[in-house]
Amino acid sequence: MTDIIRDAETTGKERKRLFIKTYGCQMNVYDSERMRDVLAPLGYEPADEPDGADLVILNTCHIREKAAEKVYSELGRLKTLKEEKASTGKPMTITVAGCVAQAEGAEIQRRAPVVDLVVGPQTYHKLPELIANVHRERGEALDTEFEVEEKFDALATPERHVDGFTAFVTVQEGCDKFCTFCVVPYTRGAEWSRPVDQIVAEVRALAAKGVREVTLLGQNVNAFHGEAPKGDPEGGVWGLGRLVRHLAKIGGIERIRFTTSHPKDMDDDLIQAFADEPKLMPYFHLPVQAGSDKILKSMNRSHTAAEYLDIIARLRAARPDIAISGDMIVGFPGETEADFEATMELVRQVNYASCFSFKYSKRPGTPGAAMFNQIDETVKGERLARLQALLTEQQVAFNQSMIGKTLPVLFEREGRFEGQLSGRSPYLQAVHCEGPVELIGQIANVEITGATKNALSGRLATKESAAA
Ligand code: SF4
Hints:
Elements: H1 2-11, E1 16-22, H2 26-39, E2 44-46, E3 55-60, H3 67-86, E4 93-98, H4 99-104, H5 107-111, E5 117-119, H6 127-135, E6 142-143, H7 148-154, E7 166-170, E8 172-173, H8 184-187, E9 192-193, H9 196-208, E10 213-217, E11 226-227, E12 237-238, H10 240-247, E13 255-259, H11 268-276, E14 283-285, H12 293-298, H13 305-318, E15 323-330, H14 337-350, E16 354-359, H15 367-370, H16 377-400, E17 406-414, E18 420-424, E19 430-434, E20 443-451, E21 455-460, H17 463-467
Parallel strand pairs: 1-2, 1-3, 3-4, 4-5, 5-6, 7-10, 10-13, 14-15, 15-16, 19-21
Antiparallel strand pairs: 8-9, 11-12, 17-18, 17-20, 18-19, 20-21
Helix pairs in contact: 10-11, 14-16
This protein binds iron/sulfur cluster.
């Protein structure tokens, strides 16, 4: 890679424009940032639009239905832009990355010859080399092998571009759970954790650049079992609770979050961390997907509704103000009205602060897609509407319960209106209030005076009101 960088530095003083379109989850947002970082030494600078870009990367997601079709239709639009650019004598390199790249592989270039390069999630560190190969019209342009350790070793550099005061840090990748509706184990590979030393170096570097809040990412983040830091007398591996407490000691880091967790991997130490580590924010996303044990078994979730509710009760005992968020799927194959009612009952018992909910849709290659007892779309739609009405009611009630309270808000940017600032509460709610721009990047107390489904509003607290 060194030779390639030298090529760019010595011959290519001109800056090149890089447009990355990111689909899907926070893991993809993080990966897009790392791709941008790894390409920066080659002279690539971020562009807001694909028009005229030298390199376009579609960082794809395979979670939603017809994900691949959406990518092909985007590629159709890019074909026109590529042709326009070619007419000016300059090439546009088009790369498909992410989970659709992993799942579809060579099929992408067969169906869409406009694509120059296909890279799976574990090979982004090789992007400079692969792109150089494309430019030199030689070499292998398809690289979707699972080599996760190599990826993180290569991307371990703390030279991250930082956009604001919050940042994602991947600590774990992949999944061995094989829920019958999910493609992740097929696209992201087996579960793997980064060594603690590497994570600490990255978070220290982020803190030095002004980051105040880190969100630790992993498809199964609470399955984290990273190699203990060098010099740790006990050695072995650390769990997520221990990692969180360790990262909380890094100067400048004021808030820590993590996502996405699995009930099966919830341990006492992580629950205890919510009780004793004030920098761990009291907001926890714990998907359950369904409230019926029959459906949970068919989904291969390896836990029951009662076990999930027990975890929630233990979390609330450890941190009484904790806000719970979740994911729900309705209309999984075989779901009866009674099964759906069990989901509604679980939702009533948990009382979510927020929750994502979806109709089940088949993912090619997953066991769920081959199940014979698929549910009619109209029934799915009707159940989803009932579930979402209940979840909306809970979310609004949770937000309204903040009125009259004073919350510490990390201000991230100016708001939509003049003189307005926007930030996040400890419970991840968007908060808007008037205030000086100097507060951006800082945590300040806000008296909450209004609440909608999606945001809170208020005024900066005076010393007296904050103490009240
Ligand atoms: S635990 Fe999560 S990532 Fe793993 S298979 Fe299940 S839904 Fe997918």
